[in-house]
Design brief:
Layout: H1 2-22, E1 37-39, E2 46-48, E3 59-64, E4 72-78, H2 79-106, E5 113-120, E6 128-136, E7 142-148, H3 155-167, E8 170-171, E9 174-175, E10 180-182, H4 189-208, H5 210-214, H6 219-227, E11 249-256, E12 260-265, E13 268-272, H7 281-289, E14 297-301
Antiparallel strand pairs: 1-2, 3-4, 5-6, 5-10, 6-7, 8-9, 11-12, 11-14, 12-13
The structure holds zinc ion.
Zinc ion (ZN) binds at residues 40, 42-43, 45, 77-78, 80-81.
Length: 322
Amino acid sequence: MANTGRKYTFFDKGAEALRRTLGEEPFTDESGTYHPTYVCPLCLTAFWGKAVEEEDGELTLEHAVEESRGGREILLTCKKCNNRSGSQLGRHAKLREKVRRFEEAITGARDGETFRIRLDPGHEGQDVGALATFTRREDGSPHIRINVLQDHSNPEHLATFSDKMESASEVDGIPDLSFGVQWRPGYIANRARVADLRSAYLVAFALLGYRWLLTNPSLDKVRRQIQEPDEEVLSGYMFAPPENLDSGRRVVLIKEPEPLIWIQLDREGVFLPPIQGRADFYEHMLEEYFGTNLNLRGHEVQWPTKLEMFADFRDAPYEGPE
Ligand SMILES: [Zn+2]
């Protein structure tokens, strides 16, 4: 029931935002009666109130960022869009982060983290399951502790593993063995990027609303890219945070070198057009700034924790919550 209540709240807010932005009552039936309407931000399908009435209604609570990356339910999308992309794309973004942490652990940049890996001591496909914990010794040199997982290993492979350990010559009391380490989280880089794009787009919509969503022709391509994550519809939308900025999530309204919205998702950053941005926003960004040392200036606004739609509910240009 709590879910249904929140759905109504988001629906009412969205419908009022849409009415204000379109400046009239565009959603009427044959008899001329106005029906409050919510438009799915991903596919632009319009829904009337009954779409939130039942638990399995056509409009569903949507996380932005995805739930698997710790996002919250802050808006509604239609069931089709919610099911189609959200969690599947988020999985790739999550695995990308795991790969980076693994790389950092191996190179000693990250301390005290444990990963599940497969070890193949003879490079012969006789791998065993293991936990690898990466730490640093007092002198800073990397140290890896391996715990073989009996329950996650083929018994024959385990026996081979023990033989190899016992027959290995020792160097300073440690078996001198070379291991093949398998760690294949299997994420697709494009899908991880589209997960970022999708999350950033939904966060911007929750913050700014329909005035932003409907005044930017360049967002058509963003929506198509989200619907077709394996096609290259759009490029030039990722811009990583500068190194001196700590990891985290933030919305920054950029003023210089030109107006745009930059959304930071931990180690990633996504460009989005400002309200009433140019139709060729992304082509323009690539042409002007690709390969240059881009120095963005602007101010951070509060990350939305619910459907805010600030740009629909005030007349002045949006500069951040008041
Ligand atoms: Zn939809």
